[in-house]
Amino acid sequence: MQLKPPTPAVRIGLSVALATGLYGISFGALAVAAGLSVWQAVALSALMFTGGSQFAFIGVIAGAGAGGAAFGAATLLGVRNAVYGMQMNVMLRPRRWRRFAAAHVTIDESVAVAASQTDPAEERRGFWVAGLGVFVLWNLFTVAGALLGDALGDPAAWGLDGAAVAAFLGLLWPRLKGRDPVALAVVCAVVTVLAVPFVPAGVPILLAALAAAAWGWADRRTAPVVPATDDGGGSGTGGGPGGGIAAAARDGDPSAGGGADREPSPPRDPCLNGRPDGRGE
Amino acid sequence: MDGLWIWIIVACAAAYATKLLGYLVPSRLLDNPRMLRVAGAVTIGLLASLTAVNTFASGQAVVVDARIAALAAAAVALLLRAPFLVVVIVGAAAAAGTRLLGWG
Description:
The complex is a heterodimer. Chain A has helices at 8-22, 24-33, 38-48, 51-62, 67-77, 79-92, 97-104, 108-115, 120-152, 160-172, 179-195, 203-218, 243-252, 270-273. By secondary structure, chain A is an all-alpha fold. Chain A is globular. Chain B is mainly α. Chain B is built from 5 helices and 2 strands, in the order αααββαα. Classes of the chains: A mainly alpha, B mainly alpha. At the A-B interface, α3, α4, α5, α6 and α7 of A face α1, α3, β2, α4 and α5 of B.
């Protein structure tokens, strides 16, 4: 690549990559605290590479759930990536082997950055810079976090179980825009807690997923899935987890609405369009 | 190779297959309002459920312990628009601090 000043999409992609990559540390540390080996944590980041599902997998294992339940939770949480893949296929039209590479880096962050752009070349740059940038940094920081977690010893003494709670709330938070998502979240949390004493560990999570699917199926007001920078982070300048990129994605991507009868987009989060890199040099 | 490794490999394969599916199937199969709503609702429901399990479950028992302090502290941090990593550290500090005070 020649030395040119980075375009807006490249700069947004890089800042998202840095913010998201950094908390690969928390994934690595929590994975080891949940009982995975360092290599298992590394394998999840390199091969699964979708933060929400990775946290879901170790979250079930940490709660003494079976491997099958961890698989179920991770896979269901990854379903939104199929929707993103479809949108990116329409937007970027990757050909041949690029399609297989694009699939692997199809995550909330890369999709949100691509969707925040309007020029096709910028969409493409934003997607690849964010996707590959997050991939490299997320994996590096996972290794660092896993080694750190290994060295810490007793997870409870360091509050790592509390860190897991905070991580899941942080992943959920940017998706709670409006009253309906909050009601859905509360219902699913209640279903989970009620089910805990009666079914094997891990299964309550799958029951909540079932309840949520029924909710989405029946309630025409439910918002369609949109890419939050789910793994939190957002633009990395204290802009708050995810909101900015997600809001930009909603406004910028005509296909994100999917023709669904959703309410008008919530107001844009100021953290993206107020930043210098939302615009030209 | 223990059982957990097998589930990790299977889950990773499923995650990639899911992503690739979006690129390979005709878009009309996925791009309908109902599918998009279900995908949106399942994402929120799972994250809410995982938050609840990690806060209140201890095996098959429902318990209230230091993790509830982590939940509250994380919510405050999120309200103050703290970045994700700060939220996680605040959660850990709240749980560890509560235990240091002799509860949970």
